[in-house]
Amino acid sequence: METPLATFEQELASQHGLVTLAQLRDGGLSEARRQRLVDNHLLRRIRPRVFAVVGGRNSWERGLLAVVLSIDDAVASHSSAARLWGFEPPPEARYEITVPRRRRTEIRGVAFHSSCEVREEDVVTRDDIPCTSFERTLADCTTLLNERQLGRVLDDGLRRGIASLPRLAKCAERLESGPGRHMSIVRALLLERGIGFDPGGSRSELHLLDVWREAGVPLPVQQQRVKVGPKTYRPDFAWPEAKVFAEYYGLAFHTGPAAVAADSERLTALSSAGWLPLVFTQGSTDRDIVERVTEALGRRVVVGDISTSC
Q: In angstroms, rounded to a whole number, what is the distance separating the alpha carbons of residues 232 and 225?
């Protein structure tokens, strides 16, 4: 015999095992029958107007969605949306939502923001949870993360294909600064990233750039195109005048026979063309990263004073 909850299978499957009071009513479930489901420990009310299937898997995402579903037109935002988008470093983990300015409410353990500037293009669905777009979330986190952290978040989003500079520019055109938002930071990030901007490689590669920048090492060119014979290579970092290049070998992309063969072929080709290779891994310390590059660049300068062969 079909259980009363079978009628709501689609809602439960797409909402982390949650169903709203409105959905139960629209599905024809009477108040008396709903109460019997609660009394029989099949449903449990976890937020105002939101019920969960008893025994369903509890998770941070389910808790966040329950908050969003409990208030009309609410969306996950700020630190909660940042976690859904995978911001690194993530702001403090908490339930944080934005509601239309006309609505005022309080729910224990939830941070509320009200705004009349949440447009259709600002709202997407991430992990089945309505939340602010990557670009809007970035703008809303300008008081939670510093400019350098936000720059790394933006570049990571561009590499993953979930962020867009034109969308961010459009967002910056209409949003104003306020107590919880510094749009000057967003505009500075856009100014640094012009037409044809290449966000570079992985987070680990960006860490190397940060280490060199803080140590005063001349910054390299990222993804420099180097033609050797009929082939063109793009090392992670290059100092073209010194003919020094550096690569970061992460385990995810530089293990296995095919990867080893490709890495060896690239290193051999560039070395034969007079380039000095440097390879860094997860085990490389910041000091090692700075000293090896400094030594290599210094050696090439000395060699350049003596001979033009390099």
A: 6
